[in-house]
Amino acid sequence: MVRRIDTYLEQLLPDEKLAFYESVRDFADAEIAPHLLQWERDHRLVPDECIQAMGQLGLFGLPIPEEFGGQGGDHTDLVLMGLAIGYHSQSVAITPGAAISLGAKPILLCGSEEQKKEHLPALARGERMFVFGLSEPGRGSDAANPEVTAVKQGDKWVINGEKCWSTNAAWASHVVVHALTDKDAPNGKRSTCFIVPMDEKGVFYQEMQGKKVWEQSSTGSIMFENVEVPHDAILGNENEGFKVMVTTLNGGRLFIAALALASLAFGLDKCRIYAEEREQFDNKPIGRFQRVQDVIVDMDIALERGITWLMHCCNLYEQNKLAREQAAKVKVDCSRTASELIALGMEICGGVACFDEFGLIRHHNDLFVTRVGEGSNFVLKDLIVRPLRGR
User: Fold this and answer.
1) Phi and psi for 145 in degrees, rounded to 5?
2) The CATH number of the domain where 44 resides is what?
3) Of 75, 306, 329, 387, which one has the fewest beta carbons inside 10 Å?
4) What does the alpha-carbon distance between residue 271 and residue 275 come to, in Å, rounded to a whole number?
5) pLDDT digit string (tens) for 201-228?
6) Element (H or E) spanning 77, and its range?
């Protein structure tokens, strides 16, 4: 079966980018798709052997320069990886995705040369994984004002508090902690990011239980009790943690948009094929009905629009021209539209859409994360509207 999304990517990508996408797509078809249903039914996180296979393919080092052991690619490669693997499972795709966009990227964009030399080679090989400690139990969308604190004591900093919704926490070697360091400073100048080893004394991790989205992805709560780190653990500059956060999330939102479109692409293919195979009313395919056709056409229009827009944003990102509101817009639109259309697609398919082996319910559930991940859509609209108000 030719995937509809491939038709659009063939028109938008140069040959080398398309070849990369196809190689990851074929890997996902062979190494992920056949096992995914069993992983789900066994309530397993992404197995270590799958993570190792993705590491051997070089997926954890996509945008990391060759001098640091990476593939020397760019952010577009990361987005294409999300499209290729996310077609089957956002849970699996977010594992290398978050390891790069929320783990390696902060080091790549904001780290010192010493920090890059120390961490990037192992991150590129998938032997080390960073988790981004941003969200907190009492701080969701208000991430610029963390409750986790870091207090300077002599030549060290002492960190206390809790981070939650930390993707990849089960496999993390280090956590980048966004902490309050100057409560009296202006908004945006009161926090600092620190690189903290997960095995440091006073660091405690617990997998969050009961999650019904991204079920194969690790989502952890990380506690810090009087954790001492040296001054050179600071990522970026002191009291500029907000800058690190914003720099990191801008690219991450493109990846989340890619996951939403990957789910939409799966849903489109599933629904259009089912509509031609399912016979009802005089033993004719239900695809002949106008209402069924309307949903499938709307899915196709949204997919082509979203992919074209996303690739445009990737080009701007590579040129360092992507504004924050542009990344927010594509993430909001792709996640919202895909969520709405997948639900309608499930109506086309009826009761069979509720079964795990059919696949639609997985994407329906996981799409919720794309609406709140990397910034809630409601909050991001406040960012989007600012230029419209002249702010």
Assistant:
1) -125, 75
2) 1.10.540.10
3) 387
4) 6
5) 999 999 999 999 999 999 999 999 999 9
6) helix 75-86
pTM beyond 0.85, yes or no:
yes
Q: Contact, 76 vs 17, CB < 8 A? A: yes
The model's pLDDT over 17-44, given as tens digits with 9 standing for 90+, comes to 999 999 999 999 999 999 999 999 999 9
Give per-10-residue mean pLDDT for the chain (391 aa). 93 98 98 97 96 96 95 96 98 97 94 96 94 87 86 96 96 96 91 97 95 96 98 95 88 96 98 94 92 98 98 96 96 98 97 97 98 93 91 63
Residues 278 and 303 in one domain: yes
Which residues have a Cβ under 8 Å from the Cβ of 317 and sit 6 or more positions away? 75, 76, 250, 251, 254, 327
Residue 86: which of 370, 353, 377, 379 has the closest Cα? 370
Q: Which domain holds residue 41?
A: 4-128
- 385 and 266 in one domain? yes
Write out the catalytic residue numbers.
Answer: 374
Query: Which among 180, 226, 163 is positioned nearest to 200, based on CA atoms?
Result: 226
Which tokens sit at 251?
A: 């690219």
Residue 383 CB partners (closer than 8 Å, separation 6+): 324, 325, 328, 375
